[in-house]
Amino acid sequence: MFAKLQLDSNCFPVVSTFAKTSSPNVGVSVPTKTGVSIPSFEKVEPTVKLGEQRTGGTSEAEKVSGFRRSTENQKACTVFGPELENPDGRQRRTSPNASTSGKRKNLGAKLNGVKSNAPVRKAHTKCSTKWATYGGCIPSILQALDTVKDLDEALRPWEDTLNNKERSIILKEQSSWERAFEIFEWFKSKRCYELNVIHYNIMLRSLGRAKKWSLVESLCREMAVKGIAPINSTYGTLIDVYSKGGLKEKALAWLEKMNQQGMLPDEVTMGIVLQMYKKSGEFQKVEDFFKQWKMDERGDSDSSHDDHSLSLYTYNTLIDTYGKSGQLKEASNIFSEMLRKGIMPTTVTFNTMIHICGNNGHLDEVKSLIQKMQELRCLADTRTYNILISLHTKHDDIDMAAQCLRKMKEEQLEPDLVSYRTLLYAFSIRHMVIEAEGLVSEMDEKGLEIDEYTQSALTRMYIDVGLLEKSWLWFMRFHGTGNMTSECYSATIDAYGERGYISEAEEVFLCSQKNKKLSVLEFNVMIKAYGYVKNFVKACELFDSIESHDVIPDRCSYGSLIQILAGADLAEKAQHYLNKMQEAGLISDCITYCAVISSFAKSGRLEMAKKLYNEMIEFDVKPDVIVYGILINASAEAGNTEEAIGYIDAMRKSGLPGNAVIYNSLIKLYTRVGYLKEAEETYKLLLSSDAGPDVYCSNCMIDLYCEQSMAKQAEEIFRRMKRNGEANEFAYAMMLCMYKRLGRFQEASRVAREMRTLGLLSNLLSYNSVIGLYSLDGRFNDAVATFKEMLDDGGVLPDDYTFKSLGLVLVKCGISKRAVARLEAGLKKDYQSGLQAWLIALCTIVDVEVDCEEDGGH
Questions:
Q1: Residue 29 phi/psi, 5° resolution?
Q2: How far is CA 241 from the centre of its chain?
């Protein structure tokens, strides 16, 4: 199974982690190769001599725990780091052993009006069932600690009998790090208790999860003072908490320290390191580390035989890593090894494998996996069916997708929002009205919220099938709540406008105005709607009224109107708005100039086209190949060969020629000075040949038309490529970019959805195009979600263009440009931490959750 799935992996230097080296003789902290200093576990003499009273204030540990040991108890004192001020600024009590009831009564907890030094009634807690599984005295101890604040009182019945295991359970079961630390310090204050490495490990994890790094390091130094040697799980715990706490360099420093101690990570620690690399998208390092670990564990790098079975957690982590990095063969090999060695896969394992194979189009393997699940009696869960629903809709098998939902219900599984939304959207774009309405009814009965994306999809469905009354009732259902956003209003206007239902589009526009939701988005799509029905007068009137509604026209507002007018051969009118756009300082490229120049050239008014070209030069707007192509073609068609050659020379001086597009599609231009016309003739010759144009050549033509904003011609070639199964990711990305630049965001969104459906969203260009579209279109949730997908599932590293688009999202959501600049600076200082800061900032302002901790490779 899966033998045919192969994908070359990238080459990264192998991290040599486990070379046996001697331990350095270090003191309290030690710098590592990473440049990060961490505490050393080497035994050192305490800075406070045993039996000598310490002076100079209260330690950080004492301030947190509330304990201050007497001179007699200083023999148990340990070395801690710099002191911290109490967060609340109040002085902590100095002794938990006060003998008078007057001093004690304010320290205890009150339950139902009973003071803490009185008998406390046992209260039932949510943890009591779990506690009962421990047996013995543990449930009673935990209950007492949960209800009585004062530790002397809570633990008095068991103070003389607690053993190591019981102390470990007590520390581990504390939900609050403060309470755990308080108990830990109480144990230390009692000279009769032994605290071993397990107790310290528990505290390191508790404090690390709370990101109390100074206390973590204090405990490490304390272990060194007491001569408590770290074990494998100690290092694993430190690596785990630092990596999950966003301090990857610290985690790597502990890994290096472990190596320096000549200690080979056990499988649990190894799995923690794999998770760390996987979460940061360093998939090759996961593979390298794992292979090195296996060789070092065997102790013989030349041995090819390994009967050692890994844990389920490790197998799941490896499968998920290989899947996310696109290494299908490796993922299937790990899965096969897992079965061969008798490790029973879980639903998480199968879900991961199904997702990997399905997303890469290997449906036969998906069927095999489902059969294997049944053979092993591994029950599918809601996520299993959600994955299958998504896969079937992507491969246009809507009946199977619907059957998955029915099967889920038959197996007493509760469909969630993902289940309904995925299938509902699939029904809507296929105009399956009855099926879509059935799902809506189910969602209403269950009280599930219909998101704006699905809402817009159903509006378009009703419009596309001519059910205008239903489309209007559907719109009013959400408009009536008063919670519709500007984005949803604009999507509805666009849906009506595209089909020529201009009166309905106008009514939606007025509804938005009444609800005081008008933004530049509604104006832009309404202008475009007038363009669809060729009502150019109203388009201009609406544009001219924008500022009277306290809305400022943006680049898309001008661009859409200029494109509409230029395409309607209203070149003078288009030039008027081009001048206004220039005055507003919104021209950053030559796109709008290109449209107007093209309109003048098309009508034979070459002098006006030349005038605009010269104006571009004066305003330092750089002409591109398309502008030169238009002028070259117009000059050649008018018989002005010298002018055509002059533009060719100017193009050469600008450094524009010399790429494959020029050489392959503009050959005839240099012989007849005809640029685009000859490029088209060359392409027609290729179409009539036996071989026909290859994918690259067709892509060049699409690129050419897109750069010239000639949407109709680009769409024609694109449709032919799709019919022949030749349309690849580049072709889709170019179409998306063209629609985006024209301000035709609805078409751009459709292309983006098709790319997702076909699995053609994998490289940086495509992700940047989609993110740029959503940021310009005001779809901020979608922009952030795509960015997360880019990092988590795509494994693609963002570049400056990505963060430019995301910065636009933040600014549009009210974040200051200074704050965005700080985020950009953070990337340069520490890329991983900076990236996490971007994610947090973005997910704070939009409705997308940050993926924090992962478990089991799921």
A1: -140, 160
A2: 21
Whether the Cβ atoms of residue 637 and residue 677 lie closer than 8 Å to each other: yes
Confidence class of residue 35 from pLDDT cuts 50, 70 and 90? Answer: low
Neighbours of 787 (CB within 10 A): 27
As a whole number of angstroms, the distance between CA 445 and CA 251 comes to 49
Look at residues 591, 607, 594, 602 and name the one whose alpha carbon lies nearest to residue 568: 602
Average pLDDT on 805-816 reads 88
CA distances from 782 to 254, 771, 786 (A): 38, 8, 6
Report residue 229 as tokens. Answer: 């040697």
Q: What is the 3-state secondary structure (H, E, C) of 763-816?
A: CHHHHHHHHHHHHHCCCHHHHHHHHHHHHHCCCCCCCHHHHHHHHHHHHHCCCC
Question: Could you tell me if 540 and 531 are in contact, meaning their C-beta atoms sit under 8 angstroms apart?
Answer: no
Instruction: Output the pTM of the full model.
Output: 0.52
Examine the pLDDT at 180 and tell me if it is beyond 70: yes
Asked whether 766 and 729 are in contact (CB, 8 A), the reply is yes
Q: Do residues 59 and 80 make contact, with C-beta atoms less than 8 angstroms apart? A: yes
Closest CA to 184 of 83, 51, 61: 61
Cβ atoms of residues 159 and 190 within 8 Å? yes
Indicate the pLDDT class of residue 475, thresholds 50, 70 and 90: very high
| Cα dihedral: 597, 603, 605, 609 (round 10) | 10
Confidence of residue 298 (pLDDT cuts 50, 70, 90): low
Angular region, 728: left φ>0, alpha ψ -120 to 50, beta rest: beta
In contact, 174 and 206? CB cutoff 8 Å: yes
DSSP tally for the chain: helices H, then strands E = 45, 2
**Is it the case that residue 119 has pLDDT exceeding 50?**
no
